[in-house]
Amino acid sequence: QLFQKQAEPLLFGETAVEEFHCNNGFNDLIIDTKKSAVVHRKHETSRKEAEDESRLPALEAAYTSILRNLEEDTDRDGLLRTPLRAAKAIQFLTKGYHETIDDILNNAIFDEDHDEMVIVKDIDVFSLCEHHLVPFFGKVHIGYIPNKKVVGLSKLARIVEIFSRRLQVQERLTKQIAMGICEALQPKGVAVVVEAAHMCMVMRGVQKMNSRTVTSTMLGVYLEDPKTREEFLALAMHA
Question: Which of 44, 132, 182, 231 is catalytic?
């Protein structure tokens, strides 16, 4: 407990100091807060896992119905457990709905007197087109200019995964990645380029095997300063 006499109002000056336990009160409070955050994350993870488990039967039944309406025999060996496997797969492929940037950053933001460009390129990305529920996949290139704070490099890839593990369109995915980094770090600028092949254009529709879609989002100095934008594009897009 931080205060000896909780029923009495605190006074300013020496009386207030005497009322406050100085035995690492604030330090204990900070430690307790961190412990609470860890416990909260574990609780949230357990809750989401329980929710996923509870929804499996409905998803499994839906996939069974799809297979039967395709005039497949769902009792043959190859398909006996396919609805359950497909239900678990779709939950994994959309797990980003249950994750937030705070969850994955986990205090991996550090004070650093660095104000030059940081680029992580060729981050693999896999997502599902929300129009046809077929995959699109490719590479993400991220650049940011720190504003006295940097993030663990692997966390940039994790941010990509949060937003890609959802039903998506590439344009929105690109912007969400950029905005997520901007909100987390408050940098001077963020640049994101996504290059992807869309199976909805390869396996169906126009069936163009070699088509690629490129989208970009520029924020802060990358949007305002053409030279900074050109430097990022030259470094990120070079093989």
Answer: 132
**Which residue is catalytic, options 131, 183, 186, 230?**
131
Task: Tell me, yes or no, if 51 is annotated catalytic.
Answer: no
Query: Does domain 36-98 match CATH 3.40.50.620?
Result: no
Active site residue 131: yes
pLDDT in tens, 45-92: 666 777 788 999 999 999 999 999 999 999 999 999 999 999 999 999
Q: Which of 129, 161, 168, 176 is catalytic?
A: 129
Specify whether 114 is catalytic: no
DSSP, collapsed to helix, strand or coil, labels residue 23 as coil
Among 190, 62, 154, 44, CA closest to 103: 44
Domain with CATH 1.10.286.10 in the chain: 36-98
DSSP reduced 3-state for 44:
helix
Q: Confirm whether pTM is higher than 0.85.
A: no
